[in-house]
Amino acid sequence: MDKSSSDTMIALTSTNYNMWKPRMEDLLNLRDLADPLDNNGVKPDKKTDEEWTKMNRKTVAQIRQWIDHSVFHHVAQEQSAYTLWEKLGSMYQAKTARNKTLLMRRLVNHKLRGGISVSEYTSQFKDLVNQLSTTGWVLKDEEQAILLLSSLADSWETLVVTLSNSAPNGKVTMQMVTDALMNEEARRKEAGTEQSYVLISETNRRGRGRNGGRSRGRGRGQGQSRGNSQVRGRSQER
After folding, report:
1. What is the pLDDT of residues 4-37, one digit of tens each?
2. Where is this region: Disordered (predicted)?
């Protein structure tokens, strides 16, 4: 169980706190190291000072093991697991105008480009929305759906128009948009596969045609050579 939890764990960076935090909480709970956080750093009566100190050190080590080097220097000197945890929260969950502005800019500038699947893209989009909600700015479902539609490239314009015009009561939802994107992606992949098959078949057909022409040409040439040899033979006999 411990191995599988570590396999899915990610290192904390300056942009993924909202995803990192619940995963780290799960990992600490799985390894029975969450008490220093659950008790706000206060030792419970049932534990000795030695036991508590040892658990605190283990918790600090476990958390810092999953902090990227770009962030590590902020907590390198922290000895208390609870203080370390709170410091990370104050850094990345602060409900400041600056954090709200930065997150909203990232959300607005988030665009669906080539090389990324719809599933990955919508997951990244939702993560930004969740990060924004931790600052106290909670976007309604319709607002999220409109932002997601607005982030699509021109090649998705037909889908955007169709979805906007067919929305019940003029309101789009995240479920509607994500379902439509998934279906369109599947359709495009299928169409691309069929197109590739047609191109391969056409190439093979043309190749066979050229090879056949060369074979016939060689056959005619060999026939002419044999005919010329026979004529020269009869002339010599006479």
Report:
1. 556 689 999 988 888 899 999 999 999 999 999 9
2. 186-238
Q: How many angstroms separate the Cα of 7 from the Cα of each of 27, 60, 147?
A: 11, 19, 33
The tally of domains found in the chain comes to 2
Residue 215 inside a domain? The answer is no
Closest to 36 measured CA to CA, from 9, 18, 10, 54: 54
Asked if residue 53 lies in contact with residue 99, where contact means CB atoms within 8 angstroms, the answer is: no
Domain that residue 38 falls in: 2-92
The two tokens of residue 165 are: 């015009």
* pTM higher than the cut 0.70: no
Same structural domain, 113 and 147 = yes
User: Of 187, 163, 165, nearest to 175 (Cα)?
Assistant: 163
Task: Report the amino acid identity of residue 34.
Answer: A
Give the DSSP H/E element, type plus range, for residue 84. Answer: helix 81-92
CA 131 to CA 129: how far, in whole Å?
Answer: 5
- Picking from 41, 76, 92, the residue at the C-terminal end of a domain is 92
Low-confidence ranges of the chain (pLDDT < 70): 1-7, 193-238
**Domain termination residue (choose one: 92, 110, 142):** 92
Let me know if residue 205 belongs to a domain: no
Residue 237 lies in a domain: no
